[in-house]
Design a protein that fits this description.
Helix content: 25-40%
Largest sheet: 6 strands, parallel
Number of strands: 12
Bound molecules: NADP nicotinamide-adenine-dinucleotide phosphate
Order of helices and strands: EHEEHEHEEHEEEHEHEEH
Structural class: alpha/beta
Shape: elongated
Distance between the termini: 11 Å
Number of helices: 7
Radius of gyration: 20 Å
Strand order of the largest sheet: 3-2-1-4-5-12
Length: 259
């Protein structure tokens, strides 16, 4: 039997976890998943898992060489721009194929009032004066909103903001995104929210808040994915970017066959 295909799965998303579940136990593959190590209690992955940064693109290229990685699957979050750039540079330097698994973006539907923002700084400027704002951007981007002292923020966060980081005025709710529109609607009503700020992460985990905003006719300031302020998402048909776990698995199937 041939040596198994050695795969590095850059994780930190639901899609990465589900892909790891599908790949675990495939004798043609030896998969190592990688987490940034920033979440204190990450959901466990079904394959061998390492944690922590590699030390930039150079460190990742060295890891790929030292671990004799044959293929890299970048299934990090659409807003994890640094890691994706490092993955592209390191894979090219090491001469190994790279697949980007990136879930589709959310798109506004009938009844939605979206205010597009290029980034967190622009989103902060676009919040109406005197608003009560549900802020769902994660702790890295909180600081961009701190200068808006005329806005009351309700910040829903999985992790506590870092010590010493600027935090906007308002309330912090330590929680994950609500799983139903009804749950999200209650939150919006209970806090008398007048505007929602979200990142265009896509996927099922955060879309209930958008349905709730639509139901209550609330505007949504939607932050575009990094690197694509106005343009479309990476082409899902170019062979190196896919949108679904099934497509990622097929790509690895093909890799394992030619290996
Ligand atoms: P980032 O800004 O793109 O990356 C910052 C640094 O963190 C990278 O340069 C790398 O350090 C390290 N890193 C990131 N992902 C890693 C991984 N999977 N394995 C090993 N090291 C990793 O990333 P981020 O936005 O802070 O996100 C960190 C993690 O949280 C990612 O895995 C991402 O999938 C997940 N996540 C992010 C968001 C978001 O909104 N940004 C939301 C949900 C989940 P070195 O340069 O030292 O290698």
């Amino acid at each position: 039997m041939n040596e198994p295909l050695r795969v590095l799965l850059l994780a930190g998303t639901r899609e990465a976890r589900l892909l790891a579940e599908r790949l675990a136990g495939d004798p043609r593959l030896a998969v190592t998943a990688s987490l940034a190590g920033v979440t204190r209690h990450p959901a466990p992955l079904a394959v061998a898992t390492r944690s922590g940064g590699f030390g930039g693109a150079g460190g990742l290229a060295r890891f790929i060489a030292a671990e004799r990685i044959d293929a890299v699957v970048d299934a990090t979050h659409p807003f994890a721009a640094q890691m994706s750039a490092n993955a592209a540079a390191a894979s090219a330097a090491a001469g190994v194929p790279l697949l980007r698994l990136q879930r589709p973006q959310w798109r506004p539907g009938p009844g939605d009032t979206w205010i597009p923002a290029r980034d967190a700084a622009e989103a902060a400027r676009l919040i109406p004066a005197g608003a009560r704002c549900l802020l769902t951007v994660g702790r890295k981007d909180l600081g961009a909103f701190a200068a808006r002292t005329d806005v009351h923020f309700v910040m829903r966060m999985i992790e506590q903001p870092g010590a010493g980081a600027p935090v906007p005025a308002g309330d912090i709710i330590r929680d994950r995104p609500g799983s139903s529109a009804g749950q999200e609607e209650r939150l919006l009503r209970d806090h008398a929210i007048t505007v929602l700020v979200a990142k265009n992460s896509g996927g099922a985990d955060g879309d209930a808040k958008l349905a709730a905003a639509r139901q209550l006719a609330l505007p949504v300031v939607m932050i575009a994915r990094p690197g694509q302020p106005t343009g479309p998402a990476p082409d899902p048909h170019d062979g190196t970017t896919v949108e679904t776990i099934e497509e990622a698995q097929s790509w690895l199937d093909r890799m394992a066959q030619v290996c």
